[in-house]
Amino acid sequence: MARAFAEITFTPEVRALQERHGSVKSYGKFLEPTAEPGDRLSDAEAAFIMERDGFYQATVSATGWPYVQFRGGPKGFLKVLDARTVAYADFRGNRQYLSVGNLATDDRISLILMDYPNRRRLKLWGRARIVDLADEPSLVSRLHDAGYAARPERAVVITVAAFDWNCPQHIPQRLTLDEFQQHLAPLLSELAQLREQNAALRAALPTRR
Q1: Separation between Cα atoms, residue 2 and residue 125, nearest integer Å
Q2: Does domain 39-182 have CATH number 1.10.8.60?
Q3: Domain boundaries defined on the chain
C-alpha cells in the first residue's frame, strides 16, 4: 500500500470507520508525507499488466451510478506506455457506449486486474482520455494487436494516479481453458507413455492356446 492509494481511498468517512473498528493507526502511516508515493508503475507492475488478457473496469455516470464491465482481448492488450501511462485499443462491441459516455463527463477510472491461478490482484486508479480513431490513427494502430480480429474504434489512455496490490486471502484459484491444458499436458503425455508400455507388455505375453 502507498500514499497515493491512501489519499484517494481514505475519505473522512472511511477514516471514521477505521477509527471505529480500531485500524486507523495501522493505516495512518500511509498518509504520512514520507510514505512511498506509489503512483509510478515499476517493472513488476508492468510485467503483471502485460500478462493479462482482461480486466474489470469501473467508471461513474453523470447521475453518480458506478458502472463496471469486463474488458477482454489478447494477452497484453493493455499496454504500459510508461511508468505513469497505460492504454488499450477499444474494440467495437454492443454499441451502448456506457463507459465512453461516462468518461465524457467524469474521467476518473479504476481497473482491477486478476491473476486467479496465482491469487494475485492489482488495483489501479487513474484519469482516462478517449482518443478517436480518426483523430490519432497511429496511436490506435500501435495499441491494436494485428493478429486480433476485432475492429478498434478508439483508444483509452489512462494516466495512473495510484495502484495497490491486494491481499490474496479471499481470491479463489481458477484456470482458463488454456491454463488448464498447460497443467493437463504432462499428465496426458504420461498417460500416452503408459498406454504404449502396456501395449508392449501385452504383445510380449505368450499366446494362449
Answers
A1: 13
A2: no
A3: 1-37, 39-182
